[in-house]
Design goal:
Shape: elongated
Oligomer: single chain
Number of helices: 8
CATH superfamily of the largest domain: Cation efflux protein transmembrane domain
CATH topology of the largest domain: Alpha-lytic protease prodomain-like
CATH architecture of the largest domain: Up-down Bundle
Helix content: 55-70%
Order of helices and strands: HHHHHHHEEEHE
Number of strands: 4
Length: about 290
């Protein structure tokens, strides 16, 4: 299965898993008045939206280039990851308000082993989803997969704290429930902000990373015919980049030879993982 097929599968699994968790967490959270569990349920609702955005964004990004989109539809991944980030931040504000309210006016949490079971089911489900998306995100460079991976990881950690807050009620410690709600909301907000910045940078045409730029320069310097090289210019198209290079060669070199050199350099640079296409412009230099 290819990159887009795997991402589609991950999105569908995320929707199914999070829908299941939303139902059980919201049900027991409201029954037993656990603020941290309700916050966890709201987080699952956000996760369903994130998985849905992953599915839709991946479907659009998988479309090949056409006359209207000469470099494909790769940036759709970043547009939809931006929507995921915004939804996470908005949810975090609502959860923060509810958690602070609970902390001030007291928790009405009623202990139940059913709450404990739901936490354990959530942790196991999310950990398995994390392992799956983590494996895919290492195999494919995809911000949607990376966003989902971080989301599943965050859920494992926050639900562990939810479990602790529930168990503490056995010894009459109720304030921790509200504190966990606050912690979850802050965590969601920070994660959303990080995804937002990463997506925003690509949509605003951030340059290729320095490590890859140095790799391109080293490759170009291996050509004895290239006597001078201008600074690299680049523009992202999804998770890859179009790279523009201006090289200077001996002015006495024939047009055929100089363009043959440029074509070879384009092929070599284009073979680099993060490069979608290389465009090389040749200028003569007088010796």
């Amino acid at each position: 299965m290819d990159r887009f097929g795997e991402t589609k599968k991950a999105g569908l699994l995320g929707i199914a898993g999070n829908l299941f968790l939303l139902i059980i967490k919201a049900t027991v959270g409201f029954i037993f008045k656990s603020q941290s569990m309700i916050a966890d349920a709201a987080n699952s609702a956000g996760d369903i939206f994130a998985s849905l955005m992953t599915f839709i964004g991946n479907k659009i990004a998988s479309e090949p280039q056409d006359n209207s989109h000469n470099f494909g539809h790769g940036k759709a991944e970043y547009i939809f990851s931006l929507l995921i980030a915004i939804s996470m931040v908005l949810i975090s504000f609502k959860l923060l308000y509810d958690a602070i309210y609970t902390l001030i006016y007291g928790s009405k949490l009623t202990f139940s082993w059913l709450l404990v079971i739901v936490c354990l089911v959530t942790i196991i489900t999310k950990f398995l989803l994390f392992l799956y998306t983590s494996k895919l995100s290492k195999k494919y460079t995809n911000i949607l997969l990376d966003s989902n991976k971080k989301d599943h990881r965050n859920d494992c950690i926050t639900t562990c704290f939810t479990l602790v807050s529930i168990l503490l009620t056995l010894v009459n410690i109720y304030w921790f429930d509200g504190m966990v709600g606050i912690g979850i909301s802050v965590w969601i907000c920070l994660t959303g902000a990080k995804i937002f910045i990463e997506s925003y940078n690509v949509l605003m045409d951030i340059s290729i990373d320095e490590k890859t730029a140095e790799l391109i320069l080293d490759l170009a310097h291996n050509y004895e015919e290239i006597q001078k090289l201008d600074k690299i210019a680049s523009s992202p198209v999804g998770y890859k980049y179009i790279v523009f290079l201006t090289i200077y060669v001996d002015g006495n070199m024939s047009t055929f030879e100089s363009h043959k050199l440029a074509d070879q350099l384009e092929r070599d640079v284009g073979a680099i993982e993060k490069v979608y296409k290389a465009v090389v412009h040749v200028n003569p230099i007088t010796i």
